[in-house]
Amino acid sequence: MAAEGSEDFSNNGELGDPSAPEVSETFESATDMAVDSEENAGGELPEVAPAPDPNAYTMPPAEEDDEGELPVDFDRLWKAAHDNPQDFSSWTDLLQYCEQESHMTASRRALVAFLARYPLCYGYWKKYADLERRAGYTTKAEESLVFQVCVQGLQAIPLSVDLWIHYINLLLGTLDMNQPESPKRIRSAFEEALVAAGLDFHSDRLWDLYVEWEKEQGDMRAATGVYDRALKTPTQLYSSHYEKFKVHLNTNEPKEVLSPGEYEELCVEYRQALKAERAAARAEGGEEEEEERPPGEEEEPASLDGKDSEEMMQKLRELALARREKVFQLMEGEVRKRWNFEDAIKRPYFHVKPLDRAQLRAWHSYLDWELTQVDLGQGETETEDPEFLEALRDSGVVAGGDRRVRVLFERCLIACALYEEFWTKYVKYLEPQSLEEARTLFIRACEVHLAHKHTIHLQWATFEERHGNLEEARRVLVALEAAMPGLAVVRLRRVGLERRAGRTDESEALLRDAVAQSKETPSLHAFYSIKLARYLLKLLKNPGKARGVLQEALEISPDNSKLHLNLLELEVSGDPRGSPEGVQECVTRALAAPLSPRTKILFSQRGLQYAEDYGNSVQSVLSIYEEHQKLLKELGKKRGAENGDGEEPEKMSKSDDGSADPAQAPPTMPHVPITTPPPPMMGGDMSGQGGYGAYNSWYQQPQYGGYGYQNPWNYNQGYYPPS
Prior knowledge:
Strand content: under 5%
Strand order of the largest sheet: 1-2
Structural class: mainly alpha
Radius of gyration: 39 Å
Low-confidence stretches: 1-66, 301-306, 378-384, 395-400, 645-719
Largest sheet: 2 strands, antiparallel
Number of helices: 31
Shape: elongated
Distance between the termini: 100 Å
Mean pLDDT: 76
Oligomer: single chain
Helix content: 55-70%
C-alpha cells in the first residue's frame, strides 16, 4: 500500500530517499490487457503498446472547494512563475508555498500548471494523487480524481516504475478483492506496467511486486510465468530473480508451479532418463534387456496414487532449472554488456540543471551501442554451442531489439529532455520506420519540452516539407515566429519555403513585411533590405525595384557600409553600356555618407576601377583619378593628424582590400597563379566576403611584380599623369 500523507520531495519532485531510483519514463502508453493466470504462465513477452496521441493529453478537472480566499502570497508567486515560465525555481517556490499553506485549491491550481509545463517530474504526479486522496475523492476507484491523476501521469511518463507501483498500490487499497472483477483489474494493471516499463534496466521492483501478488492470490503457476518473463529481461537485479525462482520451485510441488504443458514435457524427459538408467544398470549387471511392450500397452506410471515421489519431484525440479539455467547465462551476458553503460549514468531523472559533458557522452555511447545491437541482430553471442543458441532462440530474448532501443531512447529523453541533439537522434531512428511516430516525437519535443528552442522547430518544418506536408511545415514556422518574434532565421526559412513551393509573391510579401516591421532596428532593417534586394534582382530580374529598396534603406541607415556596397555592386552588375553614371552616383553617395576614411577610399578605388574598365572616354577616367588622388591626400592628412603616425596616403590605399565589410582587411590571398578575376558580388552573397571589392588583391600578388603591378592604381606610369 502507498504511504499515507505527504512525502518529502527533492530533485524535481522525486522521492527524497528511494531504495532504488526508478525515474525513467517513456511515452509508450499501456493498453488494457485482461489476461488470466494461464496466459501469465506461458512466459510470453508482452507486445509493444502504441504511443499515445499528445493532443489527447489533458489534465483532470480540478474540483474547487469552499476554502475561501487563496493564500496571501499565492498571486505574487503565481505571477512570478507565469511571467518567467522557464525559471524552474519560481515554480518550486510556488508549489512549496501551497504545500506549506495546506490550501487544496491553490495546490491543485499550481500542480496542474506546473505539470503541464514539466510533465516528466514524476514525483509531483505522486504528490498530486496523494493530494486528491487526502481530499477523500477515492470512493469510486475508476472515476475518482486520484486515479485520473495517476492515469494522466502514466500517459506522460509510462516508464516510471515508481508511478506504476504507486498506481497499483492505490488499486489494491481501493478495489474490493471479493468482487470477481477486481483480481482481473489488478492483473491487467500489472500487465500494462510491464508493457510500458518492464524492459527498463531498473524495473526489478515491479517484477517482484507482480510475483508476490500472484503468490498472495495462490496462483503459483502464474507466479512462475512472471518469473520466466523476468528471467528473459536484462535488468539490474537479474540474478536475484533467478535465486528467488529457485526458492519458489523448491518450496512447491512441480505440478503446482509449472504449467501443464511444461510439466508433461518434464515427465516424459524423466521417464526417458529413468528408462535409460535402468537399461544401463541391466547391461552392467549382465541382465537381459527388458522385453518391448506391444503397441497400446500402458507404460509404467511415473508416480504412485497420482502423487509424485520425492525422487521424481527433485528430478523434475532439476530438469526445470536446467532449462532456465541457459536463459540465465544468456541474461548474464546481456547485463554484463550493459553494466558499464548503466554505471556511467549518474542522473537518470529529469532536472533543469545542465548535465556535464561526461553524462552526455555516456548517453550517446549507450545509444550508439544499442543501435549497433539492432543492426547486428539482437541477442548474438560469442559462443557457437548449438544447445545454447537453441535456448537463445527459444527464450524470446532475441525478439524485441527495437523495443530495447526505444526504451533506452525514452529513458535518455528524461534526463536529456532539454537537449535537442537526443530528440534529433531519436527522430533519425524512427523516421525510416514510421513517419507518424517521428512526427509525434517532434510534437512532444516542440510543444512540451523545447517550446523555446527554435532549432528543433526548424528541423520539424524541414521534416514536414521533405515529406510533402507543406501546410504543416508552414504552420510550424508561423507558430514558431509567433512564439519567438523577430528571429530572422525563422522569417528567412518561411521565405525559402514559399519560394520552393513556387509562391514567389508570398516570399516577396514576407520579406517586405520584415523590412517594414524592422524600421525601428536599423541594423535588422538593413539586413532584410539587402535580402529583399537580392531576391528582386536575382529571382524576379527586377533591378529597378532592388535599387529602390536599397536606396530607401540608405535613407534610414546612411552610415551602413554594407548597404552602400550592395547598391554599388547592383550598379556594377548591370550593363555598362546602359547607364555608367549610376556607378559614379553610388560612389558619390558613399563619399558623402558618414563612413570611415578607409571605407571611403575603398569606394573611390572601386569607382576608379569601373571607370577604367568601362569608361566611355579617357577624360572621364582621368577626372575620376584626380578626384581619387585628392581624396587620398585629404583623408590621409586627417588620419595623420588624428593618429600622429604620418602614414602616407598611397601606403594606406595599398592596405585597402575588397572584402564585403570595407572596414576590415581580409587575410592575404594565397600565392597561386591567377588567370581570371573573381565574379562581381551580386553573383554571390552581397553581405559576405568576396565580389567586386576583391579586385584590389589581384594587383598585389607577387607573381605580377615583373609587370609593374605593385601599385594598385599607378600600375602604368605612362597612363596617368604624375600626382
